[in-house]
Design a protein that fits this description.
Layout lengths: L4 H10 L6 H20 L2 H5 L4 H30 L1 H18 L7 H6 L8 H22 L5 H54 L4 H7 L2 H4 L4
Helix pairs in contact: 2-4, 2-7, 4-8, 5-8, 7-8, 8-9
């Protein structure tokens, strides 16, 4: 494909600024969790008779979730920043898989690599946002005397379970993507080595060296 000179000149002048809606959504969720941490540390809650064990558990859960979400969003941002390079690598592996008969020609490697930055975590972020918003309201209602301490304790216990499930869903997707990225890199490295071996084996200057260093199971496959 011919070089697009307009794009080339724009990148030369301004660099390439990557932006991704899914990463932005994750950052907003992290900001909401941080604000909720602050709200739950309101000294008034300790003075209004909330069970300290329940309150501490909720505070710890929200802090832990925010730490995990921040890490997940950073991983998504890295994926977005590397999307051009990794898309190229994934396309190479799509062709390799089809060539080796592993799978029919498809976009499967590309699809599995970028789910998190193409909206597959959006539902989990939405669940967290909804739970955070509900607990904000519960805090205000409790301090304002609209709900009693038992109802508020129920809200605290509920959000802990909700956040844990959503956090696990996000982490599971990112773990799959990391495994896919490592698989893609391994296939490309293996392909490059295989091509080099074939080239060096055909070269009279290097064939004797290859003959002395390559394992028998590789040499049996060479002409």
């Amino acid at each position: 494909m011919a070089l697009n000179l307009d794009i080339y000149q724009l990148i030369m002048s301004n660099g390439l600024k990557i932006s991704n809606p899914a990463v932005n959504a994750g950052r907003e969720t992290s900001n909401q969790l941080m604000a909720l941490e602050t709200a739950l540390n309101n000294p008034a809650l300790d003075l209004l008779g909330v069970d300290l064990t329940v309150l501490t558990s909720a505070r710890d859960s929200i802090a832990s979730t925010n730490t995990n979400i921040t890490g997940s969003v950073n991983a998504m941002a890295t994926t977005a920043d590397n999307a051009i390079q990794m898309s190229s690598m994934a396309q190479q592996v799509n062709r390799l898989d089809a060539l080796s008969g592993a799978v029919p020609a498809s976009c499967s490697n590309t699809t599995e690599l970028f789910g998190s930055i193409q909206g597959e975590n959006d539902a989990a972020f939405a669940v967290i946002n909804k739970a955070v918003s509900a607990l904000f309201q519960a805090i205000n209602d409790f301090i304002g005397g609209l709900i009693d301490v038992d109802a508020f304790a129920t809200w605290l216990a509920t959000i802990t379970d909700t956040l844990s499930l959503a956090d696990s869903d996000i982490a599971a997707l990112l773990s799959k993507e990391l495994a896919k990225a490592n698989e893609i890199k391994n296939k490309i490295t293996s392909s490059a080595i295989a091509q080099n071996i074939a080239m060096l084996w055909d070269n009279p200057c290097s064939k004797s060296v290859m003959n002395d260093v390559l394992p028998d199971d590789i040499k049996r496959l060479l002409p």
